[in-house]
Amino acid sequence: MSFIRLLMIPLFLWLLIAQDQPAAAGWLLLGIGGTDWVDGYLARRLDQVTELGKFLDPLADRIAVATAVIAGWATGVLNPWFAGLLVAREALIGVGAIALAIRVRSKLAVRYLGKLATFLLYGSIPAFYVAAGDFLPGLWEPLAWISGIAGLGLYYWVGVQYVLDIREALATQEPG
User: How many CB atoms neighbour CB 86 within 10 A?
Assistant: First the structure.
């Protein structure tokens, strides 16, 4: 399913840019997030977790979110400060995670609050897109902001915890 999510990204961009259909792009983005959840659930439930899946799943997630945030920023669907804070946090944690993987051959343990933050942001980003269309924008925009601010706050809170985890791991473990 990770391949399917990756293949949906060009369709998302086509809907947003070539067709000027931000709401349709937002609904597709919700589908991309939903298939992520289904993919993970089925892989664990059916004991089908693979090394390729462990690599592709987070890669597909990062590419989908980065595309949605950057495209939203560029088209005015996402508020620039909101998008900028998402990109900054992701870059900081990404660099730290890469350093951790290279220096001590380890990766960050996923935190429950990080999953909750991701869930809130996976809801808010598509909601901003749907709100930019004609389908009940008075409903979607407040939901996007509520979910987005809560998700962003948690995202940074967990980001601080990840930075502390990275610093501790780099300071206490010998290079692998």
Answer: 26
Total tally of structural domains belonging to the chain = 1
Return the CATH number at 41. 1.20.120
CA-based nearest residue to 8, from 23, 30, 40: 30
176 vs 160 pLDDT, higher one = 160
Residue-number span of the structural domain to which 45 is assigned: 2-172
Mean pLDDT of 121-126: 92
From CA 80, how far away is CA 36, in angstroms rounded? 26
When mean pLDDT is compared over 48-52, 94-98, 163-167, the highest value belongs to 163-167
pLDDT at 73: 96
**Helices 112-131/51-75 angle, 10° precision:** 40
- C-alpha 135/C-alpha 141 separation (Å) is 11
pTM value is 0.85
Helices (H) and strands (E) in the chain, counts: 6, 0
